[in-house]
Design brief:
- By secondary structure, the protein is α+β, with helices and mostly antiparallel strands.
- The chain has one domain (18-73): 2-Layer Sandwich (Alpha-Beta Plaits), CATH 3.30.70.100.
- It has 2 helices and 4 strands, in the order βαββαβ.
- It has helices spanning 20-31, 59-68, and strands at 7-15, 36-42, 47-53, 72-73.
- The protein has a 4-stranded antiparallel beta sheet.
- Strand 2 (36-42) and strand 3 (47-53) form a beta hairpin.
- The protein is globular.
- GO terms for molecular function: metal ion binding.
- It comes from Thiobacillus denitrificans (strain ATCC 25259 / T1).
- Pfam families: HMA.
- InterPro entries: Heavy-metal-associated_CS, HMA_dom, HMA_dom_sf.
- Keywords: Metal-binding.
């Protein structure tokens, strides 16, 4: 995953994903956030790797988007 200048990367543990549809849902909600440049979601081990602009979005907003989609986010 490429990180441009001024971009950060975070790995969010996502709980509750059981299928490819879940992966797609998480990918969609995270990608829709302003400041998110790219998202890679893996069913196993249950995580989302996000490249983002910290001036536009933070971990709390990303976690809330995942929760709003029906999943939970670990620490």
């Amino acid at each position: 995953m490429n990180r441009g200048a001024g971009m950060n990367e975070i790995v969010l543990p996502v709980n509750g994903m059981t299928c490819g549809g879940c992966v797609s849902s998480v990918q969609k909600v995270l990608s829709a956030l302003p400041g998110v440049a790219s998202v890679e979601v893996s069913l196993t081990p249950g995580q989302a790797r996000v490249v983002y602009d910290a001036a536009k979005v933070d971990r709390a907003a990303m976690a809330q988007a995942v929760v709003d989609a029906g999943f939970s986010v670990g620490e």
